[in-house]
Amino acid sequence: MKKLFxxxxxxxxxxxxxxxxxYEDVSNTGVYEFLDELASLKIISLNSAIKPYSRSYIAAxxxxxxxxxxxxxxxxxxxGYKLSKRQRKELDFYLQDFQLEVKAARIxxxxxxxxxxxxxxxxxxxxxxxxxxxxxxxxxxxYKDSLFTVSIRPILGLQYISNQNGTSLHKWWGAxxxxxxxxxxxxxxxxxxxxxxxxxxxxxxxxxxxxxxYKPGTRSGVDFSEMKGGVTFAWKWGSFGLIKDRFVWGNxxxxxxxxxxxxxxxxxxxxxxxxxxxxDFNYIHGWLNSGVVDSSxxxxxGSFYREVFVKKFVAANMFTFIPWRGLNISVGNSIxxxxxxxxxFLIPFMFFNSVDATNSSEVNNAGQxxxxxFDISTRQIRHLNIWASLFIDELKFSRILNPNxxxxxxxxxxxxxxxxxxxxxxxxxxxxKTNPITYKHYISTTTxxxxxxxxxxxxxxxxxxxxxxxxxxxxxxxxxNLSYTLARHGDEYIDTRTYNYDILGFMKHQTWQNxxxxxxxxxxFVNNGYFYIGVQNSNNEGDIRYEPELMHGKTMNLITGINVxx
Length: 566
What we know:
Elements: H1 2-14, H2 29-40, E1 50-51, H3 55-75, H4 85-97, H5 99-102, E2 132-136, E3 139-144, E4 148-163, E5 166-181, E6 185-198, E7 220-235, E8 238-245, E9 248-249, E10 266-276, E11 279-293, E12 299-301, E13 304-306, E14 309-324, E15 327-338, H6 352-360, E16 368-378, E17 384-394, H7 397-400, E18 408-418, E19 425-434, E20 449-450, E21 453-454, E22 463-472, E23 478-490, H8 501-504, E24 510-526, E25 529-542, E26 554-564
Antiparallel strand pairs: 1-9, 2-3, 3-4, 4-5, 4-26, 5-6, 6-7, 7-8, 8-10, 10-11, 11-14, 12-13, 14-15, 15-16, 16-17, 17-18, 18-19, 19-22, 20-21, 22-23, 23-24, 24-25, 25-26
Helix pairs in contact: 3-4
């Protein structure tokens, strides 16, 4: 911690402050989907391989889109792709939420009035206090002066699921806040307390639900809470932060296969550097939960036995190159290691596999597990986003051309066609294949997991998935989505380094399968607040350990709820 404080002091003293950084929760799918839509229309540029985005980054992209709209209006003629009526209203709607940040964005002279066009809608109380507002959109209490900015917002929600097997009720409540001090310091926090009538997410389940750590007790009528937040320091070309949050690396529309954000949030330091338009760099070093008891450090206190877990860490980086607008090529690597922090993994730009070989020497990599990954996304053709993501756990070139062999890899390939040939309509297709043993390791403290949740694909290893979706947004805030998912999983192999995995093969024996057709409707009535209802025709076959009891077998599921805040 002394080293971290030393780094922070250095940044404060020697780096020029420029803009604040606070991260927007990846669960806020409304604004994330809208930014993706604008990028596919070539209205803005976006590095969608790294999430969450900061609020200032989102504000800058929204302001960029607004500038394009204003420019077209001033020209009164063709000057590029024109947003539809729904898209223009969507843009103004989200700008309403990010007005604290957009007022600091650099805006050309012809759009200089943008900062003054947004005020908190339906603000009330404190009419004589221009710096303080209580508003309904966005819902919360907001304060801003020349030095200090803070926004406090409620978190409330309810989800009800019903099918032939029974019902599930999930309730949550809490609050979030974010703020800025000066031009460089950002801070944010979010506390959400939850109660479920039955636990819908455990490490063994194949669901996209975010992983949770349930409080001790029975597996029915469970409680859990999650605290997320961070403090950051930003300058003109980068930022540094101490954060506890979920992050997602890798383009995807149905779960990433590099870092999926499924594991419960854990603390990490984050360095982001963007020194040129053609280069973007991200690095994290995190403290994971190994779930492995360290008997040498565990002890009795009276009659109580205090279990202490083996320390576990992750270091990862991602280099993103942008040779021209709309084409992002990313390459990165990570390492999972245990026992004690190794200073070499605090160097952001390292190739950790090589460092691992040096550190381990003749110890046969016993304490470390490295990975390499690639991601490419192209939006060169307007309306179309094509991307591919590759996670490599172990690679031998001799296996590549051998049809009877395989490397320990996970592939994810997909595309989305937006706003063509029908306005406000998008079509998505995604395919995922993960070979056996990927994400696993023969040392229990260095698996690609935290709190026993895989940090990669939600289907883990020896699995495949096909996902297709048709989405339509008839007017601002209303979103219909029709999707089909086919997910399959094979035998569970243990990495003992004694199996002949080539003989066992990929998906040689299918142990579980899910087919789901789902129709959902969601209406976002205020920023970060929406109603939703959905109908699922789901068929789970095979090992019942892989899904919640409520979802066993063939079910027709009704899912409805309301959410305010993240």
